[in-house]
Amino acid sequence: MNCEVKAKDRIGTINPIFTCQPAGAQYASIGVKDCIGIVHGGQGCVMFVRLLISQHLKESFEIASSSVHEDGAVFGALDRVETAVDVLLSRYPHVKVVPIITTCSTEVIGDDVDGLITKLEEGLLAEKFADREVHLLPIHTPSFVGSMVSGYDVAVRDFVKKFARKGEPNGKINLITGWVNPGDVKELKHLLKEMDIEATVLFEIESFDSPLMPDGKAVSHGSTTVEDLQSTGSAIHTFALNRYEGAKAAQFLEKKLKVPSTIGPTPIGIRNTDALLRKLSAVTGKPIPESLVRERGIALDAIADVAHMFLADKKVAIYGNPDLVIGLAEFCLDLEMRPKLLLLGDDNSGYVDDPRIKALQDNVDYPMEIVTNADFWDLEDRVKNKGLELDLILGHSKGRFVSIDYNIPMVRVGFPTYDRAGIFRNPVVGYAGATWLAEQMANALFNDMEVKKNKEWLLNVW
Ligand code: SF4
């Protein structure tokens, strides 16, 4: 077999690709309107994650911490959550939703967050905030299992589980975008609008690309409301675009509230976007409009300009969130490129059964490695010591030093990307995303040709 899926063959991690589960829960929670999460753990479990998200989106927003100290780590720290909920609700009168996100320390202590929520609902909320609509929910994200990816998946499921109600069918679809950027949300909403499909877009973060208005106020907030979450049980269908970032919620809605679901495709590249539109059309009965056929044509034209001449046969390493990595690998193959190394930063045992990975194993006709539980040493070691030759790296900013140290051009994609301007604004999904990705990859290679004086004259005659 040309394409092998293997786990990292070392114990320990050198420069991780992912951070821990609570980070994913925090990213999901910022997509909910009037919501501020309390992360129950040490302050660093919020500070560094919030910084990462803030660096990535170049926006400010609130997440709270129960700020557990030594005494709490030994004797339990539920009293700090009680205080945190009280202070948060007193200080932020607009807040309606407070997820309490656990961490490694508070899961090890065994703090009974679920029990505390019942106590707070019957006590604090009923007595001090009786005139307020307030929803508390537990999200269990111990960091010693999974990764930020599974943390996002768990949080999305728990929000939906908390709020979804079965009602009269509302004729809408649920769209669970997965861990995406504001630019992706904008593009997905555009595709739905062109298809004339009404959708509840869940954990919607488009407004994190927020304007600076004349009155000086800039507000970044999630746009998915409590009502949106409640209505998910009355939808005609759920589309979870990412298998590892939203499928749990889709499965819950299907199993408990009989809302049928489709998992995937992650609409990266022309092929996957076509597949998504066909599925949307089949479920809703709405035809794919001429306007999208035209957009597809524009994307194909842009790709044709660069693919065969510049991208073909280029050797690529890709790392990051699994749906993104797999989608990018599929797109690269369509562009005649050669993804040589895919790095997935956690040990999810389901990757080997992913039909998209099986398809890569069946179809790739050159040596490709897929490494799970991978870290950046898996990339650097292969480049530095094992003769892996690369023309391009696709991944987030944490891998930039491999690119810098070994002079390999890189396109920033995924989370977090803080060392290039405006990455969050551009979609990687849909036809617009396919165009953007192909052109970014081509431009990175052009720049490299000039810097290394490697056939840069070609660009004069292109
Ligand atoms: S690994 Fe544990 S202590 Fe560290 S940030 Fe994650 S949850 Fe907090």
From TrEMBL:
GO terms for molecular function: nitrogenase activity. Keywords: Nitrogen fixation. InterPro entries: ChlB/BchB/BchZ, Nase/OxRdtase_comp1, Nase_comp1_CS, Nase_Fe-Fe_bsu. Residues 20-445 form the Nitrogenase/oxidoreductase component domain. PROSITE patterns: NITROGENASE_1_1, NITROGENASE_1_2. Gene3D superfamilies: Nitrogenase molybdenum iron protein domain (3.40.50.1980), Nitrogenase Molybdenum-iron Protein, subunit B, domain 4 (1.20.89.10). It comes from the Bacteria. Signal peptide: none annotated. Belongs to the NifD/NifK/NifE/NifN family. This is Fe-only nitrogenase subunit beta. It comes from Pleomorphomonas carboxyditropha. The lineage of its organism: Bacteria, Pseudomonadati, Pseudomonadota, Alphaproteobacteria, Hyphomicrobiales.
